[in-house]
Fold this sequence. Notes:
Strand order of the largest sheet of chain A: 1-3-2
Radius of gyration of chain A: 15 Å
Strand content of chain B: under 5%
Largest sheet of chain A: 3 strands, antiparallel
Number of helices of chain B: 8
Largest sheet of chain B: none
Largest interface: A-B, 26 and 24 residues
Oligomer: heterodimer
Amino acid sequence: MNALPQASLDLNEVIHQPSRLVIVTTLYAVEEADFLYLLRETGLTKGNLSAHLSKLEEAGYVTIEKSFQGKIPQTVCRLNEVGRRAFEDYREQMTRALNLR
Amino acid sequence: MEPRIRDAERRAYRYWYEDGLIDILLGMFLLLVGATSVLEEVPLPEGLAIAAGVVRIVVVVVAALVLRRIVRRLKERVTYPRTGYVAYRRRPGWLRWLKVGTGVTAGAIIGLLSVSQSGVVQWLPVLAGTLIGAALLYAGVRFDLTRYHALALVSVLAGGVAAWLALSSTLRLALLLGIVGLAAVVAGVVTLIGYLRRNPRQEGDL
């Protein structure tokens, strides 16, 4: 396999990680979702999902709101505008890198 | 990447149908519309008949408007504590209006045909059954819901049966809506029971 040009490999490391890519893709398709829905959709463990969501929040891509549904705590996650733009840039980069266009 | 996004979107929308609540409410709505149509056949004094007609329209419109809200309320109690909450991205305005416009146009055509005196009236249940069936089939294919394929078939068959029976045009339509509504309620209840069995309420964080 030939080496890809360096510019094409300059991918967003936060999003490029496989588990985070699944989380971001899931959140990109919806307005917002809670922890339980993401757990089900991604197939990750609670600890893993929590860690990856923290990374995405640190990067400023995901907004996390904690509230209560009755007495049960609920964590609602949303891919914010920065995250959406970063994901769209990542898709563009991947498409170019793989010469899909 | 694009198929993965479309897949995530499709699964998110499919999730709306997973618990069967929308089937139950939609079925009850069709039963309500069918029942109010039957009332049209009851002989009433002229003034009362007009008032009953207005009340009928108001009941159907209000039910249609609050249907989605009721489903959401039920999901807050039944679905979200079990399998999680998701909110959908807002569709472009033109797409929503296109859907509303298509529904209103189809309803208006059926309404106009039902009051006309032409021979088409006889085949009205077939037309209505096919239109409802097409809408159900669209949802079934788009969100990969097998029970919606079956409901579409029920709708087309019910339209044929209703057209074949020697009833007034109003009762034919009421019968069609009654059969499809009942089938949707049954499908929804079966789906809901299966969903509740598979997904116990979560105790920890949501």
